[in-house]
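We modelled the chain as a single entity of 245 amino acids. Its sequence is:
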Amino acid sequence: MITITENPQTLGQLAGKTGADLLKETLKQKGYANIILATGTSQFETLKQLLSEQDMDWSKVQIFHLDEYIGLPISHPASFRKYLLERFINHVPDLKAYHLIDGEADPEKECQRLSELISKNPIDLVFVGIGENGHLAFNDPPADFETEKPYIVVELDHACRMQQLGEGWFPNLEAVPEKAISMSIRQIMKSKSIICSVPDKRKAKAVKDCLEGNVTPDHPASILQNHSNCQVFLDKLSSSLLSNH
């Protein structure tokens, strides 16, 4: 399902509200929930809305983390651990548990640690975005649609690194790491529900390729077309190239 809004603020509010409603329903049915939070500029408003929701029992919610740069200290402005702690986790002190990716640990061991954890905790809801190159998490094209490993080491392509630079996270291209730990495509697709937030004109081509084109590793987020409960939230600019809207 695709929802098109006037601007990024409304997009984030609707995505956050929809996610919150799904989360509340899961807590009502199961008594607990496991969710995955995304980071980056596309998630600012969504996370803000999620935090503002009333009557949410965070003590029954466990959070997993989509991706993190390898070798970047948690003190770095671009650290996704820092982002999640400052923008979300520190605001919900009664959270049941959270599992951040340690980009400074041994990458293979960290992937194994997180993979074991997430395998024991099926995911109810994941928040994602779509990159300028169509990536989903840090699965740049051509993405690995086959691996069953929940977390993998990936190489970041030039377009991905340029996006991170363009969003102001790094002073120059050389400072953008070339590798990251990312949740795999198949692990993301195992989530019961997906909320995908994609604002901004610079994402318009990726949105068209991934939502109207064929499902292909060359457009990683195109895999979302195959999910039974994926809701995509766009704004006027990010949806501007779609032929059906």
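As a brief sanity check on the tokenised model: The CA atoms of residues 103 and 114 lie 12 Å apart. The first helix runs from residue 8 to 30.
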